[in-house]
Amino acid sequence: MAYPDDSRKLHKRATPQIGGVAILAGFLVWIAVELLSGRAVDVKLFYAMAISALGVGAIGFADDQQGLTPSARILMLLVFVGAVIIVDRDFLSVWLNWGSLGPTHIPLWAYVPLLALAAGGVVNSVNMADGQDGVVGSMFAVWSGCLWLVTSGAPADMAGALCVLSLIFLVFNLRGKLFLGDCGSYGVTFVLGLLVTLAHARGQITLETVVVWFFIPVADCLRLLITRPLRGISPFLADRDHFHHRLEEKMGKREGLACYIAAVGLSSVVAAMVPRFALVCVCLLSAFYFSFAWLTDANVARQAKPVPPLPGSDNVVSLNKQDRKRKGAV
Q: Is residue 263 pLDDT above 90, yes or no?
C-alpha cells in the first residue's frame, strides 16, 4: 500500500501499488499459454522475456516492500541483463543502426556494456518518472503500441499484449484506484527495453527513434542527478522537482499530464513511423523539456522539499501517529 504523507505523496487515501504485479502477471500468463499451446516458435525469446518479467519484477516488488539501496537495484538489473544474453543471443548486435547515417560497426565487448548501461539508465529514469497517475502507464501504452507497429512475429505479439495490459491498468490508475509500484516501473520497463533492443538488433528501429521514445524520462533523470547534489541533497532522495511536478505547477494536474503524454506520444509515433524525422523530434522535445524543467522554473526547485527516507529505505513513507496506532491495533 502507498500511504499519503502530505509532502510528496499527496493522494487522498492508502492505495494498492500492485499495478505492475497485474501487468506482469498477465504477461506471464500469456507467455505460458503461448508456450503450452505450441504456438511459440522462438522459444528462447519467450524464456528470456519470462525470466526478465519474473526476475526484475521481483526486484521492484522487494523494493516496494522493504526498500533496496540504489547500488543493489542496479547490480541485480545487470545480473538479469547477463541472464537474458545467455538465454538468447539475438539481443546482441555488432551494428548500431542509425536513421540518418549508415550502420556503425561495434564489437561485442563494447556493445554489452553499452546495453547494460542503457538498461540500467532507462529503468531508473522511468522509475523516477512514476510520481503522477497516468504518466508511466501512458508511456507504457505508447511505447508498446509503437513496438507493435514496427515489429513483426513474436515481438509484435508481446508488444500488443503489453499495450492491452497497460491500457487496462490505466483505467484504474487514472481514477486513483491503483498505483504501478516499483514492480511495474522496473519490470515492465525492462521487458519493453528488451523488445526495443531486439527490434534495433533486427534493424526494425533506429537509434534516433529510441532516443525520442525515452528522451523526457532520461533527460529528467539526468537533470535531477546533477541539480540535487548542487542543492545539497542526495541524488536518490525523493522530492517534487520532477518534470511532471513542474508541468502540474505551471498548468494544473490534468493539463500537465495531457501535455506530458501528448509530447511523448506524438513524438514517439512520428519517430517510429517516419524515422527520418526523429532528429527533428529530438530538437522539439529538447525545447519543450528545458523550457519547463530548467529555464523558467527556478522557483519550483526552491520550493521542492526532499522527503527523508526511513532507515534502510528510500521508497517507504512514514506513517502518521494515527496510522501507527491502527497498525499496532491490528
A: yes
